[in-house]
Amino acid sequence: MTAESLAETKHRRDDAGDRAPAVPRRPAGPVALDGHEATVILERTRASVDPELRAAIDSLPGSMRRIALYHFGWERADGTPSAGNAGKAIRPALVLTAATALGGPVAAGAAVRAAAAVELVHNFTLLHDDVMDRDTTRRHRPTAWTVFGDADAILAGDALQALALGWLAQDPHPAAPAAAARLAACVVELCAGQHADTALERRRPGEVRLDEVLTMAEAKTGALLGCACALGALYAGAGEEDVEALDAFGRQAGLAFQLIDDVIGIWGDPHRTGKPAGADLAARKKSLPVVAALTSGTPAAAELAELYEAPYDKEDVARTALAVERAGGRDWAQDEAADRMARAMDELSRAVPDPEAAGGLLALAEFVTRRTG
Amino acid sequence: MTAESLAETKHRRDDAGDRAPAVPRRPAGPVALDGHEATVILERTRASVDPELRAAIDSLPGSMRRIALYHFGWERADGTPSAGNAGKAIRPALVLTAATALGGPVAAGAAVRAAAAVELVHNFTLLHDDVMDRDTTRRHRPTAWTVFGDADAILAGDALQALALGWLAQDPHPAAPAAAARLAACVVELCAGQHADTALERRRPGEVRLDEVLTMAEAKTGALLGCACALGALYAGAGEEDVEALDAFGRQAGLAFQLIDDVIGIWGDPHRTGKPAGADLAARKKSLPVVAALTSGTPAAAELAELYEAPYDKEDVARTALAVERAGGRDWAQDEAADRMARAMDELSRAVPDPEAAGGLLALAEFVTRRTG
Fold first, then answer.
1. How far is B346 from chain A (nearest CA, A)?
2. Is the CB of B64 less than 8 angstroms away from the CB of A154?
């Protein structure tokens, strides 16, 4: 699995290594863009979305509710209450912040249900991805399938998807049908993205094209961030062009995030990421910098391909990282992330020309891509 | 797995054994209720719903479309077109026939998208249930997970659920939001039913109560039949009472079906079911007649419990079937099926007092419970 829960990743990886940040700071403006603003937005989001989310989950039958409450960190495996660690709520924050940017606080207030629906969809995909990828840890706790078994984790994921789309269908807001259709289309794209990811991982290193990995990352990571922003725009009553611009903003920011996340997966400080150095290389992940390096046509690319075909050897990790770097994978990823972030800003400024109004979305985009928060 | 695809089961099991049918024929009326009427309805349903279904599936990205087309029998595993065997379309037929009963052909015409959505949901649950239950055959072909792997079958199921609810959300019909909310709630109930089924199968024979198995069967089999009828009523503009009555009609007919299906699973003619005699007993299934027998407090119940606890022995199948029968499991199931069918008729006549208008739904209910078609 290449894409990670933005929320979870934030806990483990706070540093993009010893390099300068890929994404240049926005020129000084009227809105303070330090991590503080994003943190405030995220806290406010949790406060307004959590009750809606809890109400949705409480409406589930006991068997499904139990698994969902465990997955969200609100119950332990034995059913006792837990303080909870349901993630940073980046996606619902994007819904509410996009609604605010285009329609002010009233629009944001009306979009709380849509924000909860997006978070439910995100968590349904996490439950299923963990089963498929056999991931055993999520948000510092054993994944649901390791506790309840594959079948129950699949069923709880199915129920969360139904809850998300059904919850939106019951929303009397005039934007709800369009939002539900858009969220459903996004689920299909997420499925195709996850499929592409596993299919790419099964192919030989020399057989993977860079555009394929970019498309996969956009479907798997960018699509839901874009959809979250688009839903906020829909609830603000925005026109089609602005809705699409905000979708594109979220997608591009999501790709920038994925590129930085992939850089950290290779060169991140193990003390800060909580994972051994070069963990993604050890797992032979065809992450974006790796595929950029493999397809660079350089001598280092050939060396990298050979290393990736050979069985894993701990001694080779540093050499592999160096090969990716010498083949230009690291520079490409940093440049591409900056480029994607610039495109995101561009899309944002088209839909929300007022820098003050755009400040919240900008802060969130910088928060997920810079990890300075 | 206790519940079966009604459609598929119809192929394998056409006989309830040498007994008289559990469900008495309806008194003669103005509408002919032989299997012919149901067959005509089902054929007409396929003709109107298939194009909608194909359009929905064609809107999927290639990777997901391929798995869906295979699952529906419209493509072979190698991607070449196939004549298709997508099942008998009982659920979409219930949607359209309920809409006709309460709103005439115009309502039925408007409900085609809802009918397709119900069929998509049904097939999403089949894809996932087959993964969880490790079932290798569906509609006489290898199940999708045996061809594409677990992950792809899970993803294709996820995509079909999204397609179903998203397809409804895009329907401009005024009933669409209520229909989507109802279908989503039904998905949650189906998940809880599948969970209960696997949980019950893991428990010891003496620890399962009859009311638990009835509740499970209602959630797993009855809920979607009821939802299909309710959606038809919603699209006919029916009031809440009629919608609920049609939901109850479908649920009770679904339970009657399950009871008869369970009887056939024990005493059905292997030449007609295509399965060895007593297949459900050999698999130690806690089907409805078995649990009725186990909880009967008779000496035969004790014998049955002992046989069910022991490792499978082919020689014991006939003795086990006899124990279920002597403990009253067979009679109970037949009586209960007749009772459920009577309740179904009762609910139907409340919402649709005109026997002519109710004829189609009656024909479908008899078709699935009598298997004379």
1. 28
2. no
- State whether A194 and B155 contact (CB < 8 Å): yes
Q: With CB atoms and an 8 Å threshold, state whether B128 touches A191.
A: no
Question: Does residue A199 contact residue A286 with C-beta atoms inside 8 Å?
Answer: no
Give the number of beta-carbon pairs within 8 Å between A and B.
147
Q: Which CATH number fits domain A20-370: 1.10.340.30, 1.10.600.10, 3.60.10.10, 1.10.10.10?
A: 1.10.600.10
**What residues contact A233, with CB distance under 8 A and at least 6 apart?**
A98, A99, A102, A242, A243, A246, A247, A351
Closest alpha carbon to A119 in A101, A93, A145: A93
Is residue A1's pLDDT more than 70? no
Q: What is the mean pLDDT of residues A116-120?
A: 98
Check CB contact under 8 Å for A61 and B128: no
Q: What is the pLDDT of residues B231-241, one digit of tens each?
A: 999 999 999 99
CB atoms B188 and A155 under 8 Å: no
Q: Taking a C-beta distance cutoff of 8 angstroms, is the pair A16, A256 a contact?
A: no
Is the pLDDT reported for residue B20 higher than 60?
Answer: no
Closest of B183, B177, B175, B181 to residue B110, by C-alpha: B175
The alpha carbon of residue A270 is apart from the nearest alpha carbon of chain B, in Å, by: 31
Mutation for testing the A interface, residue in B188, B197, B216 having most A CBs under 10 Å: B188
A199-229 tens-digit pLDDT: 999 999 889 999 999 999 999 999 999 999 9
Hey, what are B247's tokens? Answer: 């939901």
CB A52, CB A112: distance < 8 Å? yes
Pick among B131, B132, B191 to test the A interface (most A CBs inside 10 A): B191
Rg (alpha carbons) of chain A, rounded to whole number? 20
Both tokens assigned to B56: 């929905």
Query: What is the rounded CA–CA span in Å between residue B154 and residue B158?
Result: 6
Residue B183: list chain A partners with CB under 8 A: 166
Q: Considering the domain B17-370 in this protein, what is its CATH number?
A: 1.10.600.10
pLDDT of residue B18: 34
Residue of B64, B181, B183 with shortest CB distance to A188: B64
Complex-level ipTM: 0.90
Average pLDDT on A293-302 reads 96
Q: d(Cα A305, Cα A287) in Å, to the nearest integer?
A: 13
Over the stretch B281-334, which tens digit does the pLDDT of each residue have?
988 999 999 999 999 999 999 999 999 998 878 888 899 999 999 999 999 999
Domain borders along chain B are 17-370
Q: What residues of A are in contact with residue B199 (Cβ under 8 Å)? A: 63
Q: Give the nearest partner residue to A64 out of B168, B180, B191, using CB atoms.
A: B191
- For B342-364, give the DSSP string: HHHHHHHHHH---HHHHHHHHHH
Q: Which residues contact A284 (CB under 8 A, 6 or more apart)?
A: A205, A308, A312
Q: Nearest CA to CA, how far is B172 from chain A (Å)?
A: 9
B167 Cα to chain A: minimum distance (Å): 7
Lowest mean pLDDT among A307-311, B111-115, B219-223: A307-311
In Å, how far is B125's CA from the nearest CA of chain A?
9
